Amino acid sequence: MAKTDQKSILDKDLDKIAYIEEATESTSRRLVAPGLAFLFLVLTVLLAASMVIDLPGGVLVIVAAALGAYMALTIGANDVANNVGPAVGARAISLPVALAMAAVCESAGALIAGGDVIETISGGIITPLDAESPHDFALVMLSALLAAGIWIHFANWVRAPVSTTHSIVGAVLGAAIGGIGIAPVNWSMVGSIMGGWLVSPVLSACLAAALLAFIRSRVVYQFDKIDAARRWVPRLIGVMAGAFATYLTFKGLSRVVNLDLGHALFVGLVVGVLTHALVRPIIHRQSIGLENRNQSVRQLFGWPLVGAAGLLSFAHGANDVANAVGPVAAIAHAMSAGAVSDTVRIPFWVMLIGAFGISLGLSLFGPRLIRLVGQQITKLNPMRAFCIALATALTVILASALGLPVSTTHVTVGAVFGVGFFREWETQRLGYRADTPSGRAGLRLRPIRNREEQKRRLLVRRSHVMTILVAWMVTVPSAALLAGVIRWLLSGVL
After folding, report:
1. pLDDT in tens, 70-88
2. What is the C-alpha to C-alpha distance for residues 174 and 168, in angstroms, rounded to an integer?
3. Residues near 267 by Cβ (< 8 Å), separated by ≥ 6?
4. Three-state DSSP class for 238?
5. Are 476 and 151 in contact (CB under 8 A)?
6. How far is CA 458 from CA 328, 378, 465, in A?
7. Domain residue extents for the chain
8. pTM for the whole thing?
9. What is the DSSP letter of 119?
10. Which burial class, exposed, middle or buried, applies to 22 when counting CB atoms under 10 A from its CB (0-12, 13-18, 19+)?
């Protein structure tokens, strides 16, 4: 009896030790990402200190570099999820591979096409005045960086993909009003940004829904799906290649190759025609032996979707790195020159901080929002995700032609909404599962038995929709208010 009791007590003690070890290991894993992020911030401070040690106002530049690195981390954790989320949700690519690919493409876009000379204020939201002192200007930029970083960090925590461009624009607006007044504010640009916020998600949603309806009509609902896919999939891939060629030459590479929209469209047309000619025999070979099923058709959209995710990440790195490092370069220039300028040259070490910070933020903190965008708003497959990617590129091109500044976050998530709500509408209208062929093809339908099955299978997650929409609506005013408060606090310290 005594031995049995001793064995029981020993087992309990061993269980307690094992539980403590598991808890310690779990806690250690949770601390790895914040620890690496903190190490990156420390290295950024050391790098900045070595570069501006003799610069007047060097302390402000060092602080700005640290805040720019923090902003880059939050951008990587939030914004990049929109580029690779649909591909991951469609299972065209695994999450680890998507993280690695996006990190490489983001860094390449930032370093190759990020530009040596950029506007110092995101979106031209304020106009530098001669009356501004470099010190006041630096405080405005510091307040904006910190406020935008905090707001995006909060959005990551509540799992809401928000526009980093709108965050920094709102923060600059609030910091400028709080520190300088309303005179430098470019109100026409503010109105243009808000107009783009209203139009772009609706436009991308409609385009994504229209593309999905077209593919269903021309391919999915045909009696011989494989034959229809051989005709239409190469054409759709050609359209996507042309759209991304136009998008990259007009937006992503705008600081390397300065082309107007007309020339960019011509480049896209040439690339689209060549791509169609190249991929047509490839798609034909891939389709040989495939069964006449929807799943077979979806497979043909897989690799183009992966390419689209990489191109979106490249363009994002080229365009959005300025949100993190533009203010840092502006502060460094203002401190060294003793005057505020509309445009500045970004030092390579500053661009390196932005590029590496975005990639590190994506790798450490990005998976949560990647899963949200790709899997939890609505169910995606390669065909639906292809429509989202193509709608994103087309929306950016159309908005640029209309002169509307848009956010890729709003555009991509709007396209996800469009695909999901189209599937709901189609199911309710026709009364059968959206993945089954139409009666027009002469095939048997599988009707939905009850509305509970419909909600479980097809309904877009309303909780995620509401969270995202509310976050979009309050991004600019929240970032502005936060930046105004930080600017007031910094005025008594720096």
Report:
1. 999 998 888 877 888 888 8
2. 10
3. 245, 246, 249, 259
4. helix
5. no
6. 46, 7, 14
7. 43-491
8. 0.81
9. E
10. exposed
